[in-house]
């Protein structure tokens, strides 16, 4: 595999690992913003670049209907609410 494709595959692998961990982290009482911050920390922990592929987006409850709506520091997840996440890692400049 060429170097570029290796980097893209690593970025995807990091993103997959983050997803596996973040679903264990999410619980009622956390804000959307706290979850987005944890996603960022996990990306870094698993070897992703400090410059993410794009800003992570987390919306919960009725806010999940917002198309790429901003992550809120005030919105607290309630039991049974859906959580929408859009995030991606970058590895050696590739995402």
Task: Explain how this protein is built.
Helix content is 39%, strand content 8%. It has helices at 3-25, 32-45; strands at 57-60, 83-86. The longest helix has 23 residues, at 3-25. The model has no long low-confidence stretch (mean pLDDT 94).
Strand content: 5-15%
CA distance, first residue to last residue: 16 Å
The structural class is mainly alpha
* Lateral arrangement of strands in the main beta sheet: 1-2
In DSSP terms (H or I, runs of 4 or more residues), the helix count works out at 2
Radius of gyration: 14 Å
Q: Based on CA inertia axes, which overall geometry fits?
A: elongated
Flag low-confidence runs.
none
Main pleated sheet:
2 strands, antiparallel
Task: Return the string of H and E elements.
Answer: HHEE
Helix content: 25-40%
Total number of strands = 2
Average pLDDT level: 94
Topology of this protein?
Elements: H1 3-25, H2 32-45, E1 57-60, E2 83-86
Antiparallel strand pairs: 1-2
Could you list some keywords that capture this structure?
2 helices; 95 residues; elongated; mainly alpha; 39% helix
Brief summary of the model shown:
This protein has 95 residues and is mainly alpha-helical. The protein has helices at 3-25, 32-45, and strands spanning 57-60, 83-86.
């Amino acid at each position: 595999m060429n170097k570029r494709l290796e980097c893209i595959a690593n970025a995807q692998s990091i993103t997959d690992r983050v997803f596996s961990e973040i679903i264990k982290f999410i619980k009622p009482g956390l804000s959307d913003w706290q979850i987005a911050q944890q996603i960022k920390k996990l990306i870094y922990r698993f070897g992703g670049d400090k410059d993410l592929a794009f800003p992570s987006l987390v919306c919960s409850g009725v806010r999940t209907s917002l198309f790429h709506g901003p992550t809120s520091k005030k919105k607290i997840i309630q039991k049974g609410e859906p959580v929408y996440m859009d995030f991606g890692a970058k590895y050696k400049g590739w995402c």
